[in-house]
Structures are given as C-alpha cells and as structure tokens.
Amino acid sequence: MVRSGIRSPLRKTLLPTTDLAGDFLITERTVEDIFNTLRQQSQEGPASDGNEGLVFLAGWRTDLLVFYSTVIGPRVQNNYGSVFVTAAEFGHCAKRARHATVQILAQVHSHPDTCCHHSDGDDKLIILPFEGMLSVVVPHYGTHDVPLTQCGIHQYRKGAWCLCTESSVQEHFITAPSSILVI
Fold first, then answer.
1. pLDDT of 10
2. What is the pTM assigned to this prediction?
3. For the segment 3-14, what is each residue's pLDDT rounded down to a tens digit?
4. What pLDDT shows up at residue 2?
5. Separation between Cα atoms, residue 1 and residue 62, nearest integer Å
6. 17 part of a folded domain
7. CA 45, 76, 35 angle in degrees (round to 5)?
8. Is the pLDDT at 91 greater than 70, yes or no?
9. DSSP state of 123
10. Which residues on adjacent β-strands are paired with residue 161?
11. DSSP 3-state assignment of 3?
C-alpha cells in the first residue's frame, strides 16, 4: 500500500513511498557484477567524468521469494545525466535471459550524484514494468561499491513506482554470501 510521498530534486511530482512488499535475495557476487558493469558503462559513455549506466537483474521468483542470480548488461545509449535502452535491445537481453533459464526481474541504473530517487523520466522509461518489480538506483555512476540496501529501492505498485522505506528494505532485501564453506 502506498503510504505517502516525498519531494525530490529530481522530480516535478511527488515520489510515492511505501514498504517493500515481498522477500528478495541477491548474492554478493551478483552485486559485484552489477557494479563492475556500471563502472564499465560509465567509462564508455561520451562524458569524460562519468556516464549513467544500466543493467538488468534476472533470476527466479516464487510465491515466497525473488532470487536475483544474473546480471545482464545491455548496450546502452548514455551520457552524464541519462541512460536509455531500446526496445530491441531489451528484447535481445530477454532472449539472453531465457537462454540462461532465468527471467528479467529488475533493473538497476546509476545516477551521477548521491540522490538515488527515481526521476520523473525514470518512472516512464522502464520497459515492461510489472506489479512488484524492483528498480534500484545507485549513486556516483556505480563507481563506489555500496550495499544495495543503501541505494534507492523502488517497487512498481498499482501502476506507480514507489520509493521503499529504509526499514522495509533492511528487512526484506537480503544480500547473501556467494558461497559458504562448511568443513
């Protein structure tokens, strides 16, 4: 349920807020892959001091849990303040996901500064949003590794992107070790 909204320097409209619904699991290695890909995209864009980047998270979902196991890096059109993926490139990424027997379940993109709120444009440019989908915004073009729980976790709820409360993200979004050795 949408609780309220906040003002953001990136928006003309209020950014709705809500508690994160569902449980989400991602491995440390998957998080590393996210940041490595965002760093690469930041360097490959036209601006010499950094460019926005975007990756898709793929994995599996059940009634109880969403598990992100795979990072898919699309070809992006990016610059210092925006990133865009064409519908055709999204289709190519979806095909790569199916080949790996996973499905695209979330999007992660970077912003230039510390603000990790969706902009009004972010709300409109996500391809094929679905109820419960996550969109994560990371700061500083993804050049600094930070826990995803300290980034902007947005969830698509009843036709709107909502910023999830910090306490609900801490409770329902878990980063697990990539492996555990038990001797």
1. 87
2. 0.94
3. 678 888 888 988
4. 52
5. 21
6. no
7. 75
8. yes
9. H
10. 156
11. strand
CATH label of the domain that carries residue 136: 3.40.140.10
Residue 141 lies in a domain: yes
Q: 80 lies in which domain range?
A: 2-9+22-176
pLDDT tens digits along 12-70: 988 999 999 999 999 999 999 999 999 999 999 999 999 999 999 999 999 999 999 99
Distance CA 14, CA 144 (A): 28
Query: How far apart are the two ends of the chain, measured CA to CA in Å?
Result: 45
DSSP letter for each residue of 42-97: HHHSS-TT----EEEEEEEE-SS-EEEEEEE----EEETTEEE--HHHHHHHHHHH
Q: What letter does residue 7 receive in the DSSP assignment? A: -
Is 47 a domain residue?
yes
- What is the total count of domains within the chain? 1
CA 86 distance to own-chain centroid: 17
In terms of phi and psi (left: phi > 0; alpha: psi -120 to 50; beta: otherwise), the region of 159 is left
Task: Answer whether residue 182 is part of any domain.
Answer: no
**pLDDT at residue number 181:** 72
Q: In this predicted structure, what is the pLDDT of residue 8?
A: 84
d(CA 26, CA 175): 5
Quick check: 51 and 44 in contact, CB under 8 A? Answer: yes
